[in-house]
Amino acid sequence: MREFLLKSGGRTGDFSLNDLPGAGRMDIACRCITACLWLSDELRKDSILHLFLEGPPAPPKLLSFNPLKLKRFYPDERNVASHIRLALLGKPQPGISLKTISFKDFLEEQRKQKQIIILDSKGKDIRKIEISDNVLFILGDNRGIGEDIEGEKVSVGKKVYLSSQVISIIQNELDRREEQWQD
Amino acid sequence: MREFLLKSGGRTGDFSLNDLPGAGRMDIACRCITACLWLSDELRKDSILHLFLEGPPAPPKLLSFNPLKLKRFYPDERNVASHIRLALLGKPQPGISLKTISFKDFLEEQRKQKQIIILDSKGKDIRKIEISDNVLFILGDNRGIGEDIEGEKVSVGKKVYLSSQVISIIQNELDRREEQWQD
User: Fold this and answer.
1) What does DSSP assign to residue A113?
2) How many beta-carbon pairs below 8 A join chains A and B?
3) Distance between CA atoms of A39 and A86, rounded to whole angstroms?
4) Is residue B183 part of a domain?
5) What is the number of domains present in chain B?
6) Which H helix or E strand runs over B28?
7) B8 in Cβ contact with B25 (< 8 Å)
8) What is the torsional sign of CA A11, A16, A20, A21?
């Protein structure tokens, strides 16, 4: 399973669907979820996205999205945000789980089973590294990751991209490898 | 200059910012514009996006976004949509132009100066083709392109991706070539 974690400054309480940027750049989180979990006409069956929310009023919160179980879930930011909001209000919809866990504890748990890759524009070229079938990619939002994490630093290019663009590029690279389309 | 054209079923009149999917999947158009024109902290200086709108009530309309001149332009869908809506209501903001032109006429005009690449999941691998500095990529939204266009068919992978994901992947491929990061 491919897993992605976005460290986000998004709010951990109620917010307005009419102002996602004002909710700790929740728009970034929504675009990342769409970039990670969707293909053209269907949700992916091979990926999970973890949204680690560090904004007020009740951080930290970890929301995990499993596309195998999601219902009435669409790719537009407002729909994705409505699912995030419901989960934060204590009414998580199918396929979405809510946990209160520190980043450190979550990471330690993941480290036992997964290759940890940290996205960093100065890291190694993603096209040239080995990637396990069991992998967790860690990205930051507009604030960056904000702490030093032990793991392999990997880059998708010299430019610094939007987190959602980075996820699209990674998913494509992994798809190409699985499809042996590269050579 | 890199140029992209999205053939969209988006509305060509007023629409609600609270229901972008209901406005002819205007959410897709917004995500494509963000994927095309943004880097992490700044607008690109090397790309233009053309949004060709074919939805009611007054098609066709061609909206062109030039990031060198855009003002108060942000990456969230609602902000991008607010710029599209203002342009359609006859109040285009800086960096956005509105034209009434047929797709055929626009394409003929472009063909004189540019390499035309049509995105098609069955096309040639984008990593293996020559791409000119003067290129126009043509993509469809959820409806596809909907007509047969003369030009080179190019693919980013076997899977069919969201149009915004495809644009992110292409921009990255072009960046890598410019940066000579590949070898």
Assistant:
1) T
2) 121
3) 24
4) no
5) 1
6) helix B26-37
7) yes
8) negative
Q: Which domain holds residue A88?
A: 2-178
> Does some domain include residue A88?
yes
Q: Is residue A113 part of a domain?
A: yes
Q: How far is CA B146 from CA A82, A181, B139, B140, in A?
A: 32, 26, 10, 8
At B183 the pLDDT is 46
Cβ–Cβ of A78/B18 closer than 8 Å? yes
Span B138-149, average pLDDT: 94
Report the largest interatomic distance among the alpha carbons of chain B, rounded to a whole angstrom. Answer: 50
Task: Note whether B21 contacts A79, CB cutoff 8 Å.
Answer: yes
Asked if the C-beta of B157 comes within 8 angstroms of chain A's C-beta atoms, the answer is yes
- Nearest chain B CA: its distance from A69 CA (Å): 20
* pLDDT per residue as tens digits for the range A71-92: 999 999 999 999 999 999 999 9
Contact list, A159 vs chain B (CB under 8 Å): 39-40, 175, 179
CA distances from A97 to A11, A27, A70, A109 (A): 16, 20, 11, 17
Decide if A34 is inside a domain: yes
* pTM recorded for the entire structure: 0.97
Nearest to A77 among B76, B162, B179 (CB): B76
Average of pLDDT values for A147-159? Answer: 95
Q: How many degrees, rounded to 5, is the angle at CA B133 between CA B128 and CA B134?
A: 115
User: pLDDT tens digits, residue range A157-183?
Assistant: 999 999 999 999 999 999 999 998 654
If you average pLDDT over every residue of chain B, what do you get?
A: 96
**CA A19 to CA A29: how far, in whole Å?**
13
* Overall average pLDDT of the B118-135 stretch: 97
Give me the mean pLDDT over the B95-99 stretch. Answer: 98
**CATH at B33:** 3.40.1280.10
